[in-house]
Specification:
GO terms for molecular function: DNA binding. The chain is an alpha+beta fold. It contains 17 helices and eleven strands. The strands form three sheets. Strands 2-1-5-4-3 form a five-stranded antiparallel β-sheet, sandwiched between helices. It has a four-stranded mixed β-sheet with strand order 8-7-6-11. Strands 9-10 form a two-stranded antiparallel ribbon.
Length: 396
């Protein structure tokens, strides 16, 4: 633990940086580039100056990944014990920075409740400014935010340590865990403690996911079964995607219609496909109705959950390419059209220019994002003129 004098000097340096009209490269390096960048984003986010607590979302669990929810049920007692023993508050956030579970020591409980560092608290950077929970999600790395590095004045007496929670099989980001206490108790081992808590959850995920199927269907399709890539035909991947979207199961005729539509393919061909898939999955494919008997997750399911929860940035990060671009399945084509329509609608309602600029950088053909950026960016901004020229070329 740092001595009190060293901590006071650290706070004074941060105050000097905050009072500067702009950070020099040297000062940004001393502060930490991730904090400096977060300050810039926070300053442009139009956060109310008098905001003293995070907004509350009472529907917060709709954005919670199912695997993460089950894992938390297995390890909450361990995490509660850590919170009490360390005089901290521990919070788990979903992929959109909304707290889905928390436990507090007696010392931190009142402080946590007063700023809504509790279930349902929305800690997205654009809502409350610089904080470790949101920063760790954005960088997908462990983060420490000390005292007045926080944007909101009500938490400038805190120090927070956060670590991302990564699915051990798919390597997808599932959420984040944050440990917070008062700045006077700052400890260089705080980040290690956060990472340890993350590993506790990841161990619980392994316990829960003893039979786990993960489907990647954006860009290059891939199926992972218990962490290992399977060699499957495009048709078999389509079948798994349909069953993932219909967890209640499908009859043979309904599955045939969803997969082939009016194409003249015999039912016997589909039966043969299902028999092969059952062998590949070690019997983890039920019949009457056909359904998957393993824990299933997918990048497209996560993107849908992100849209349901209003997390556009997360949805766009997951959307790395067209969903099963070569499929002729009427069911999957209809689902893809619906997803793309929802994405486009969310883009036209978005206000985060940095998120949209990243999307356009990856998908220059995303004309909906280009048009929204033209609406959002000042006409004097050099990027605005570039976007206009690009749109004109696309229209032509």
């Amino acid at each position: 633990m740092m001595n009190k004098q060293a901590l006071l000097e650290k706070r004074q340096r941060i105050d000097q940086f905050r009072q500067s009209s702009s950070l020099s490269p040297l000062h940004a390096e001393q502060l930490g580039q991730s904090i400096a960048s977060s300050w810039q984003r926070s300053a442009s986010a139009a956060i109310p100056k008098d905001r003293m607590a995070a907004p509350i979302n009472h529907q917060h669990r709709r954005g919670l990944n199912g695997a993460l929810e089950h894992a938390l049920q297995l390890c909450t007692e361990d995490l509660k014990h850590i919170a009490q023993q360390s005089s901290m508050v521990i919070a788990v956030g979903d992929i959109g920075s909304t707290i889905v579970w928390s436990a507090s020591s007696n010392q931190m409980q009142r402080a946590a409740e007063s700023v809504h560092f509790v279930e349902g608290g929305q800690w997205r950077e654009e809502l409350v400014g610089t904080n470790a929970l949101a920063l760790s999600l954005k960088t997908q790395q462990s983060s420490c935010v000390f005292s007045n590095e926080h944007y909101m004045t009500s938490i400038q007496d805190w120090v927070c340590y956060a670590a991302p929670i990564i699915d051990p099989y798919s390597k997808q980001l599932l959420g984040v865990i944050d440990l917070s206490t008062t700045w006077k108790n700052h400890n260089s081992l705080g980040l290690l403690a956060a990472e340890r808590c993350s590993s506790i959850i990841q161990s619980a995920l392994l316990e829960h996911q003893k039979q786990q199927l993960f489907i990647r269907a954006f860009a290059v399709p891939q199926i992972l079964f218990n962490g290992k890539a399977l060699v499957l035909t495009p048709r078999q991947i389509e079948i798994l995607a349909i069953l993932a979207l219909c967890p209640q199961g499908l009859t043979l005729d309904t599955l045939h219609q969803a997969l082939y539509g009016e194409r003249k393919v015999s039912v016997g061909t589909l039966k043969a496909e299902m028999s092969q898939l059952r062998d590949i999955l070690g019997g983890m494919l039920g019949s009457r109705p056909y359904r998957l008997l393993v824990n299933v997750d997918a990048d497209f399911l996560q993107a849908e959950q992100a849209l349901d929860a209003g997390y556009l940035e997360t949805a766009l990060k997951l959307y790395t390419g067209v969903f099963l671009a070569k499929t002729e399945s009427p069911f999957l084509c209809a689902w893809r059209d619906c997803l793309e329509s929802r994405l486009s609608d969310a883009i036209f309602k978005a206000n985060e220019t940095d998120v949209l600029l990243k999307h356009v950088a990856h998908f220059p053909e995303a004309i909906d994002a280009v048009e929204r950026l033209i609406e959002l960016m000042p006409k004097t901004h050099p990027v605005h003129q570039t976007l206009l020229k690009f749109k004109d070329r696309e229209d032509f």
